[in-house]
Design a protein that fits this description.
Number of helices of chain B: 9
Radius of gyration of chain A: 32 Å
Radius of gyration of chain B: 25 Å
Number of strands of chain A: 8
Largest sheet of chain A: 4 strands, antiparallel
Shape of chain B: elongated
Distance between the termini of chain B: 37 Å
Helix content of chain B: 25-40%
Strand order of the largest sheet of chain B: 6-7-8-3-9-10
Largest interface: A-B, 17 and 24 residues
Mean pLDDT of chain A: 83
Shape of chain A: elongated
Low-confidence stretches of chain A: 367-374
Strand content of chain B: 25-35%
Distance between the termini of chain A: 37 Å
Low-confidence stretches of chain B: 362-370
Order of helices and strands of chain B: EEEHEEEHHHEHEHEEHHEEEHEEEEEEE
Strand order of the largest sheet of chain A: 1-6-5-4
Largest sheet of chain B: 6 strands, mixed
Mean pLDDT of chain B: 85
Order of helices and strands of chain A: HHEEEHEEEHEEHHHHHHHHHH
Structural class of chain A: alpha+beta
Oligomer: heterodimer
């Protein structure tokens, strides 16, 4: 019996080990590139062109320690011998030396053509953190003015700034109302669907849920036509309405699932206590639905923030451009400027990360919303 | 403080009739208990009074006012729910003050009333806690407190004790009774537990299948149930029933059962004389069946024989489950009796205390024939 339990325990531990292993691998797959972008975004543009982000970490690299001249009397077409101060000898004909000769910790490489008669000696040495970091990338990517930076070969380049700072503000202007408006509407609607009796309630709710399956890409053209007719294209109100429309079915469905699990007794008790439907909604339903509202806030906020298609179609380009559009444009105009692309990507990531971390304890609970009572 | 009247109240959900012609007159300051098995419509009756359900037909009056179309908040009632229905995100104080705040009462008054109610229920120390930090009994008292502060005309209690453990239930039962005496308000209390009904009520309305079977004081319900259902529902263990026939033999009237034949005493026989040959149900409560050795003096004895099936010693008495003919019945006999299972024993019925129900009338709602 005891042995059986033990083997069961061992099996369980093995199972857990593999689960954890897989989780760690998945986490790494996601984390490593993001971390790479993070490091890159702080590195000098010149360094980025010449080395990978991992060279930021301490590592051993070849460092030139000496330059030896071919001693008098040796012929470049024969076997040559270079001698270092400490007596280390590098021997070989031109071809051998050209491809490098390793002796101990050193490595000798013939420099250039035969006639230079020079051998460069490298030593493998530890290099510390590459602290040659800068905030200039962020400054440059946010700025809308002319910017200058060093290119691959160290020459100064001048470009027009992408003005990500302005796009960032635009994104906030789009995202915050486009998150709050659907929540307000959906909370009222969900309360109505869950607790009020009216004709066609079931049918309407079914229609709302059915709208979940309509792909955004199909609806976007008619929506654009409507916005054009109302002269709302290129304006924030237009995109707020579009996002509200696209977000409402899910919002209503999520909040309905949660609100309908609130015990009926509580609401009835409030009605007897003298509450109207509106009081019940504001004083009971809203405070009690905070977890599900928070989880939907995350969904909607991330979706709107990362949205490119709706923004492109309804806002177009120009002064109201949002972060995703600016980043996409940068890939086109500044495709080689890794330092700008990476810092831009990070700027666009900051707000969603803050929102997620602030609300994540509700997120995990919110995903369970409605499935388990209590 | 007000009386409550149900005037021919019907409640239908489609074809399902939940309340059938309910008529109740509940006096001012009365403690009325609605009791019945689950699904009998007792909760619906209460919810109709609260205004949480609309009635299909008839009218409900609180005092002299017809409240059919009055919304719950304007009926001047307070309700205590089985689940307590406390507002989970509010403190005990806010829970109790909620109704007063909605009625725009001045803050000082609210505080005074809540503190008074809390003091009377022993909740002073808990006012700043949230419901989830309270025990079941404390939550129950908060629910009561929330009803008290409103100072309503009628208190409605929907199975308020069924979520408490047995010991707390007994304790809270007496607290509610005391509360009723102190507040001098009309209480309407719904329960499925006939013990609660018997111990607390001024009057009990026994409901079954949407019909009020009998409305009477606990004593009368116990002593003279109007029909088979009430007889079987009130009392624990419940009354024993024997399918029998009335037989007149000269001047005497007998009840014939395959296993026994007992004579109805002279004082009551005239009532049953006309029922000669009729199929009836003969009912007798377990405590009216005695071991002949220990039978109290002054009763009219009728001897029978039965086979012991199971015995349960309760300390102060023994429950003997017996079989006579094909009928199983229970007797509560003196603990000095010594019975073994399978033994055939002599018992006596106390013929001053029996019931006879006429089967020829409606089986669901048979008229009492006493």
């Amino acid at each position: 019996m005891a042995a059986k339990t033990k083997s069961y325990e061992a099996q369980k531990r093995m199972g857990q080990f593999f689960v954890n292993l897989v989780l760690v691998i998945i986490a790494l797959i996601f984390f490593v590139p993001i971390f790479g972008i993070f490091i890159t975004s702080f590195r000098q543009s010149e360094t980025i062109f010449n080395s990978g982000w991992w060279e930021f970490f301490p590592h051993r690299s070849w460092k030139e320690v000496a330059e030896l001249k071919l001693p008098e009397g040796q012929n470049t077409s024969d076997v040559m011998t270079f001698t270092l101060d400490d007596g280390t000898e590098f021997k070989g004909d031109y071809q051998t030396l050209k491809s490098g000769v390793a002796v101990g910790n050193y490595r000798g490489v013939y420099h250039g053509a035969k006639r230079t008669k020079t051998l460069k000696v490298y030593e493998r040495r530890w290099k510390g953190f590459d602290l040659n970091l800068t905030l200039e990338n962020y400054e440059n990517v946010l700025s809308g003015k002319k910017i200058t930076y060093k290119g691959e070969d160290g020459s100064l380049l001048t470009r027009n700034g992408s003005d990500l700072g302005k796009s960032f503000l635009n994104s906030l202007t789009v995202t915050i109302p486009a998150t709050i408006i659907p929540i307000l509407i959906a909370a009222f609607a969900a309360y109505g669907f869950a607790w009020l009796n009216f004709r066609g309630r079931k049918l309407m709710f079914t229609v709302v849920v059915a709208l979940l399956v309509v792909p955004l890409q199909i609806a976007i053209v008619p929506v654009l036509q409507d916005l054009t007719a109302m002269k709302l294209t290129g304006k924030f109100l237009g995109i707020w309405l579009s996002h509200t429309g696209f977000g409402l079915p899910l919002a209503i469905y999520l909040l309905f699932n949660y609100i309908s699990t609130i015990p009926r007794d509580i609401l009835e008790s409030a009605f007897i206590d003298g509450a109207s439907n509106f009081t019940v909604f504001t004083q009971l339903i809203l405070p009690l639905s905070v977890p599900s509202i928070a989880s939907f806030t995350i969904f909607q906020f991330l979706w709107v923030w990362n949205d490119y298609l709706v923004a492109l179609v309804t806002l177009g380009g120009g002064k109201n451009e949002v972060v995703t559009q600016t980043l996409a444009n940068m890939v086109g105009t500044k495709g080689n400027d890794w330092h700008l692309l990476t810092s831009g990507a990070f700027v666009s990531m900051v707000i969603p990360m803050i929102v997620f971390l602030a609300l994540q304890r509700y997120f995990v609970r919110g995903m369970m919303a409605g499935s388990v009572k209590g | 403080m007000a009386s409550v009247t149900y005037n021919h109240v019907w409640k239908r959900y489609g074809d399902v009739e939940v309340l059938k012609d309910v008529q109740l007159e509940i006096n001012d300051k009365e403690f009325l208990v609605l009791v019945g098995p689950s699904g009998c419509g007792k909760s619906t009756a209460l919810r109709c009074l609260a205004g949480l359900e609309e009635i299909t037909e008839g009218e409900i009056l609180i005092g002299d006012r017809v409240v059919n179309d009055v919304s719950p908040k304007d009926r001047d009632i307070a309700m205590v729910f089985q689940s307590y229905a406390l507002y989970p995100h509010m403190t005990v104080f806010d829970n109790m003050a909620f109704g007063l705040k909605l009625r725009k009462m001045p803050k000082a008054d609210i505080e005074k009333r809540v503190n008074e109610a809390a003091a009377s229920l022993g909740l002073e120390r808990l006012l700043h806690r949230k419901p989830r930090e309270l025990s079941g009994g404390q939550r129950q008292r908060v629910a009561l407190g929330r009803a008290i502060v409103r100072n309503p005309q009628v208190f409605l209690l929907d199975e308020p004790l069924s979520n408490l453990d047995a010991k707390l239930r007994v304790q809270t039962r007496s607290e509610i009774s005391k509360l009723h005496q102190r507040l001098q308000t009309t209480f309407i209390y719904v329960t499925h537990d006939q013990v609660e009904a018997m111990t607390m009520a001024d009057r009990i309305a026994v409901m079954y299948k949407g019909i009020v079977q009998q409305l009477d004081t606990p004593q009368n319900l116990y002593n003279s149930p109007k029909n088979l259902f009430v007889a079987g529902f009130i009392g624990s263990p419940s009354m024993n029933f024997f399918n029998a026939k009335i037989r007149t033999d000269g001047d005497n009237v007998f009840v014939d059962h395959p296993a026994f034949s007992v004579q109805i005493p002279d004082s009551r026989k005239e009532v049953y004389r006309s029922m000669n040959g009729k199929d009836v149900v003969f009912g007798i409560r377990p405590e009216n069946i005695h071991n002949p050795e220990f039978a109290p003096p002054g009763i009219v004895k009728a001897a029978i024989q039965a086979k012991v099936d199971v015995t349960e010693l309760m300390g102060n008495e023994i429950f003997v489950y017996c079989i006579a003919g094909n009928t199983q019945f229970v007797a509560r006999v003196d603990p000095r009796s010594n019975y073994t299972v399978g033994q055939t024993i002599d018992l006596v019925f106390d013929m001053t205390n029996f019931h006879i129900f006429d089967l020829s009338t409606d089986a669901e709602n048979p008229e009492a024939v006493r």
